[in-house]
DNA sequence: TTGTGTTTTATTGCCTCC
DNA sequence: GGAGGCAATAAAACACAA
């Protein structure tokens, strides 16, 4: 690339080159100008131009209204400073003044694309070359795009974090509910055993002889996500020692007592009917089902043999695991 | 003062559109 | 084919800590 201090070459460089030199010529004495600077003066803007860095000039009210950029430029007050400042500037890249930038920013906010007419107008108002205006807009669009990408990324990350957090909460809730089902199942088994009406099989009795998965987590494959959370909380408040408050819903969890000799006591689920809107019904029907169980204990519920020895969840066709002995 | 990182201005090459 | 846009990049200007 170009060495430091070199003036810009290449196809697009001449305009800017001229523009910079125009500015310089207007401040410096004519004896310092080169032939190229004289050439550049042909393109000098009609109005007073911006000269050099932001510290060189001071504009008031540039962004305030519709006035021309130069209306409030106090040339006399600043001329000496401009000259002094300019003498310190090399013939290299020059930054736009703060006010020029503000003016361009304002223009960019209105419309980030630059039509040719607008480009010329801005160039005139700011005392810059049209190409400089175009370059500034180009770079500004690039900066805007980068910022936008960062913003979008941040937004996506926040959404991801929220989703992840929700997922983890649901996972925990599912674990809690699963644990509770086990707990309640055990209680029910114990209760049934104690009553002597059902020869229910304790799942842990023969656990050594069974595959671990089916013994330790017999309902782990049951779709738990449809179990309303409120049931969980409500159940915690109820007397868990009572079989009448245990967990089976006559609407959403149809209990079917099938006499299979010594090995059947099957609950069939209709999970598709469960939704969060059914929480209330679910709770009620759980109670009624529990009552039914209680009644069965009392009244020798028809359809259930007195020597059932299996308690589990169905369901071969759904791939649910259950245990048999 | 100097080294280093960041920002700004500008160039280059490629692409699309008219 | 020329104009204009964009991505990648260079390099000057600037900010700032040591």
Automatic annotation (TrEMBL):
GO terms for biological process: positive regulation of DNA-templated transcription. Keywords: Coiled coil, DNA-binding, Homeobox, Nucleus, Transcription, Transcription regulation. InterPro entries: HD (IPR001356), HDZip_class_I_plant (IPR045224), Homeobox_CS (IPR017970), Homeodomain-like_sf (IPR009057), HTH_motif (IPR000047), Leu_zip_homeo (IPR003106). It comes from the Eukaryota. It is found in: Nucleus. It comes from Anisodus tanguticus. Transcription factor. This is Homeobox-leucine zipper protein. PROSITE patterns: HOMEOBOX_1, HOMEOBOX_2. Residues 139-187 form a coiled coil. The keyword DNA-binding applies. One of its GO terms (molecular function) is transcription cis-regulatory region binding. Residues 89-148 bind DNA. The keyword Coiled coil applies. Gene3D superfamilies: Homeodomain-like. One of its GO terms (cellular component) is nucleus. Residues 87-147 form the Homeobox domain. Belongs to the HD-ZIP homeobox family. Class I subfamily.
